[in-house]
């Protein structure tokens, strides 16, 4: 089991490294680059689905901090695999309740999943685009409470967050 977990941790961190290397192609003007990105994230999403079926949510306690963050990143980017995102969200929620995962990452995954379902997000973490040089979030359920909700899960205020994108 220890060997399996070590191999799993290495696999997750390798997938995240590949994700980081190719993420620049997600919104490329070149359709071939976009397609390569979609294929990679779909492959990773499929594999995360298998991992969740076998191990549950890969927590830091199980696979280490870096690999746990990698699993979260893979779930975040499984945008065309809502079943995978929903399952990750469910398992991550349980892990957060048990103190085995962070509420900040859960908030990002929740928003990402809601947006992918065509619903309003809660924490304002997902950006729809840029208008007049300023990032515009996807619609939020309670826009007037976004900073309060963000603070509750350890996310900086919205204005500080979007300043990084400008």
Automatic annotation (TrEMBL):
The record's annotation in InterPro entries points to:
DUF6624
User: Known Pfam families for this protein?
Assistant: DUF6624 (PF20329)
> Can you name this protein?
Uncharacterized protein
Source organism of the structure: Streptomyces parvus
**Organism lineage:** Bacteria, Bacillati, Actinomycetota, Actinomycetes, Kitasatosporales
């Amino acid at each position: 089991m220890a060997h399996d977990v070590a191999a799993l941790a290495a696999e997750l961190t390798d997938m995240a490294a590949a994700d980081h290397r190719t993420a620049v192609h997600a919104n490329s003007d070149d359709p071939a680059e976009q397609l390569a990105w979609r294929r990679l994230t779909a492959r990773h999403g499929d594999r995360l689905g298998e991992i969740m079926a076998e191990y549950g949510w890969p927590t830091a306690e199980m696979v280490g901090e870096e690999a746990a963050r990698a699993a979260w990143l893979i779930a975040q980017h499984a945008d065309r695999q809502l079943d995978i995102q929903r399952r990750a969200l469910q398992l991550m929620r349980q892990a957060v309740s048990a103190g085995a995962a962070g509420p900040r990452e859960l908030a990002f995954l929740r928003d990402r999943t809601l947006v992918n379902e065509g619903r309003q997000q809660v924490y304002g973490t997902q950006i729809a685009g840029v208008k007049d040089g300023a990032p515009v979030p996807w619609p939020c359920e309670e826009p007037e409470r976004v900073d309060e909700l963000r603070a509750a899960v350890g996310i900086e205020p919205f204005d500080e967050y979007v300043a990084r994108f400008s």
